[in-house]
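WARN retry 2 of 3 for item q-0093 after timeout on previous attempt; input resubmitted unchanged.
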Amino acid sequence: MPPPQDKADRRPAHSNQLGTKAYVDADEFRLAMRQIALPVAVITSRHGDARTGMTATSISSVSAAPPTMLVCVNRSAGADRIIAQSGAFAINMLADAHHPVARLFSAPVVDPAEAYAVSDWRDMVTGAPVLEGAVAVFDCCVESCFVSGSHAIYVGRVVGVASLPQDVLLYRDGLFRRLQPIT
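OK item q-0093 returned
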C-alpha cells in the first residue's frame, strides 16, 4: 500500500511501471521537440573573471510567489560548471535583432570574448552578465539543482528583472523565427 499523501501534494501515489526501460528513442524525441516553437534565451553566469553563456530554449517560470525560474543545462557544457560555482545565472530572452548573439552562444565551444563582444552587457544583482535590449531578463540566485539524464536543472530565485516589449526570437525546426508583440 502506498504511503498516505499530504493534502497539498496532488502527485499520483503510483510508481513508474516501466522501470528503467527507455520511453522513446532520443532522436525521435528531438524531432518532435523541434516542432514546438520556443523562445530563445542566452543563459549567462560569471564566477570571478570567468564569464560563460549558452543559447537555450529549455527555460520556464516555476512560481510567481516567490518569483522563480528554471533552466536546463547540459552537464557537459562549460556553463554548468560556472553556474554551479557562482550560484547564480541570468536568463536573457532574445529579441529578433539578437540572431548574432544566439548563434555565437550556440556554438559547440563558446568563445566568451567573441560572444560577449557582439552586444552590450551589464550587471544587475548577481553579477551574471545581462544583455542590453533583451526582451526580458531574469537575474537569479540558484536555490536548487537536480540532475536528470544529461542535464542539470537549476531552479533560481529571481532577484532582478527587466523587460522591453519588442519582437521575440523563437526557435522551431532548426530555424530562428520572429514573433511580434501585440500593439
